[in-house]
Design a protein that fits this description.
Blueprint: H1 3-14, H2 16-26, E1 31-32, H3 33-37, H4 44-56, E2 60-65, E3 68-73, H5 75-93
Antiparallel strand pairs: 1-3, 2-3
Length: 95
């Protein structure tokens, strides 16, 4: 994982609403933007913004079908981020 991607993932996960959205997506194989929005008390444009940030970080994969967009978790990016955090923790403990 590059340093840039690490920071994008960290920024995306730092927002409580994005983290909540990621958990909602992870609990399903794939969800539409509308289905995600139906589970949260947030305006649709806000949901779309958060989904865009999660996708830019590589944490979710969007799939377009007509006018609808569906999202699913990209577990490898999350696993790579966790691994990078573990390596960082090990390095800091070695100081």
């Amino acid at each position: 994982m590059t340093a840039t991607q690490f920071h994008k993932v960290a920024k995306a996960l730092a927002d409580p609403r994005r983290f909540e959205i990621l958990k909602i997506i992870a609990a399903s194989d794939e969800l539409s933007c509308g289905a995600i929005g139906a589970q949260l008390p947030v305006a649709q444009p806000t949901i779309s913004h958060h989904l865009k940030e999660l996708a830019n970080a590589g944490l979710i994969e969007p799939r377009k079908e007509g006018q609808h967009c569906y999202y699913r978790l990209h577990p490898k990016v999350l696993a790579d981020y966790i691994k990078a955090l573990q390596q960082l923790t090990y390095q800091l403990q070695s100081l």
